[in-house]
């Protein structure tokens, strides 16, 4: 399949959020990545349900909601109602992960589990069959603009092997420090959904950057 690009609005201008949503709408982006942080699971607070609802009102692309919160099962229905097309919960935040994943699917959302850089891929073996997508964190969650962690490539090799064995349709998302310099190598390593925050919104021409993430190897800038 062709890979998907999901700009993260964490790096957007929150005072001009509608403008930045329209920018994504009119770009080659496939998804809109929404980072929800609670100041507990991660040392940062970002945005919550009212903002997700406001984004959904203007979004023409599916919302890929990444919950970096403790006990995310408390809010799954709320995020579905706020407009989430897919819901990502963290392995590290869910003691009853199987039940949490079933609830996400019963709500009609795509179910995704994220793992932090220190969490080994092997821990996903008994849940992978139930998932639509796995998110490999390539930075420690909590902040945009961090340096990509190279061990991600090893983790991609591991998740690719599990995917081949148990769930060939599984999507593999990479989140953190993705940009025009590493996306081609990440595609080669087996990832097919790419979150990009700073690479997009800190660039001079965000739409052109999205286009070049969508077509790596092709010079999309004139
Ligand atoms: O989930 C997170 C951070 O915790 C991400 O989605 C960031 O928003 C990605 O930002 P960049 O590393 O691409 O700037
Ligand atoms: Co994210």
TrEMBL record:
<comment type="similarity">
    <text>Belongs to the ribulose-phosphate 3-epimerase family.</text>
</comment>
<comment type="pathway">
    <text>Carbohydrate degradation.</text>
</comment>
<feature type="binding site">
    <location>
        <position position="35"/>
    </location>
    <ligand>
        <name>a divalent metal cation</name>
    </ligand>
</feature>
<dbReference type="InterPro" id="IPR011060">
    <property type="entry name" value="RibuloseP-bd_barrel"/>
</dbReference>
<dbReference type="GO" id="GO:0046872">
    <property type="term" value="F:metal ion binding"/>
</dbReference>
<feature type="binding site">
    <location>
        <position position="177"/>
    </location>
    <ligand>
        <name>substrate</name>
    </ligand>
</feature>
<protein>
    <recommendedName>
        <fullName>Ribulose-phosphate 3-epimerase</fullName>
        <ecNumber>5.1.3.1</ecNumber>
    </recommendedName>
</protein>
<feature type="active site" description="Proton donor">
    <location>
        <position position="175"/>
    </location>
</feature>
<dbReference type="GO" id="GO:0004750">
    <property type="term" value="F:D-ribulose-phosphate 3-epimerase activity"/>
</dbReference>
<dbReference type="InterPro" id="IPR026019">
    <property type="entry name" value="Ribul_P_3_epim"/>
</dbReference>
<dbReference type="Pfam" id="PF00834">
    <property type="entry name" value="Ribul_P_3_epim"/>
</dbReference>
<feature type="binding site">
    <location>
        <begin position="142"/>
        <end position="145"/>
    </location>
    <ligand>
        <name>substrate</name>
    </ligand>
</feature>
<dbReference type="GO" id="GO:0006098">
    <property type="term" value="P:pentose-phosphate shunt"/>
</dbReference>
<feature type="binding site">
    <location>
        <position position="66"/>
    </location>
    <ligand>
        <name>a divalent metal cation</name>
    </ligand>
</feature>
<dbReference type="InterPro" id="IPR013785">
    <property type="entry name" value="Aldolase_TIM"/>
</dbReference>
<feature type="binding site">
    <location>
        <position position="66"/>
    </location>
    <ligand>
        <name>substrate</name>
    </ligand>
</feature>
<keyword id="KW-0170">Cobalt</keyword>
<dbReference type="InterPro" id="IPR000056">
    <property type="entry name" value="Ribul_P_3_epim-like"/>
</dbReference>
<comment type="function">
    <text>Catalyzes the reversible epimerization of D-ribulose 5-phosphate to D-xylulose 5-phosphate.</text>
</comment>
<keyword id="KW-0119">Carbohydrate metabolism</keyword>
<feature type="binding site">
    <location>
        <position position="8"/>
    </location>
    <ligand>
        <name>substrate</name>
    </ligand>
</feature>
<keyword id="KW-0862">Zinc</keyword>
<feature type="active site" description="Proton acceptor">
    <location>
        <position position="35"/>
    </location>
</feature>
<dbReference type="GO" id="GO:0005737">
    <property type="term" value="C:cytoplasm"/>
</dbReference>
<keyword id="KW-0464">Manganese</keyword>
<feature type="binding site">
    <location>
        <position position="33"/>
    </location>
    <ligand>
        <name>a divalent metal cation</name>
    </ligand>
</feature>
<keyword id="KW-0413">Isomerase</keyword>
<feature type="binding site">
    <location>
        <position position="175"/>
    </location>
    <ligand>
        <name>a divalent metal cation</name>
    </ligand>
</feature>
<dbReference type="GO" id="GO:0019323">
    <property type="term" value="P:pentose catabolic process"/>
</dbReference>
<feature type="binding site">
    <location>
        <begin position="175"/>
        <end position="177"/>
    </location>
    <ligand>
        <name>substrate</name>
    </ligand>
</feature>
<keyword id="KW-0479">Metal-binding</keyword>
């Amino acid at each position: 399949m062709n890979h998907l690009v999901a700009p993260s609005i964490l790096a957007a201008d929150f005072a001009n959020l509608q403008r930045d949503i329209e920018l994504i709408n009119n770009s080659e982006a496939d998804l809109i990545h929404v980072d929800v942080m609670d100041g507990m699971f991660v040392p940062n607070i970002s945005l919550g349900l009212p903002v997700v609802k406001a984004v959904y009102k203007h979004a023409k692309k599916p919302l890929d909601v990444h919950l970096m919160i403790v006990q995310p099962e408390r809010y799954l229905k709320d995020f579905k109602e706020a407009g989430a097309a897919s819901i990502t919960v963290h392995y590290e935040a869910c003691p009853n992960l199987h039940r949490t994943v079933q609830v996400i699917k019963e709500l009609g959302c795509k179910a995704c589990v994220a793992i932090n850089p220190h969490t080994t891929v092997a821990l996903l073996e008994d849940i992978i069959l139930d998932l639509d997508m796995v998110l490999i964190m390539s930075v420690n969650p909590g902040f945009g603009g961090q340096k990509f962690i190279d061990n991600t490539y090893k983790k991609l090799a591991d998740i690719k092997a599990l995917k081949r064995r148990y769930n060939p349709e599984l999507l593999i998302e990479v989140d953190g420090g993705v940009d025009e310099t590493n996306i081609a190598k990440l595609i080669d390593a087996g990832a097919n959904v790419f979150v990009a925050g700073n690479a997009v919104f800190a660039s001079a021409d965000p739409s052109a950057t999205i286009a070049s993430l969508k077509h790596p190897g092709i010079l999309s800038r004139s």
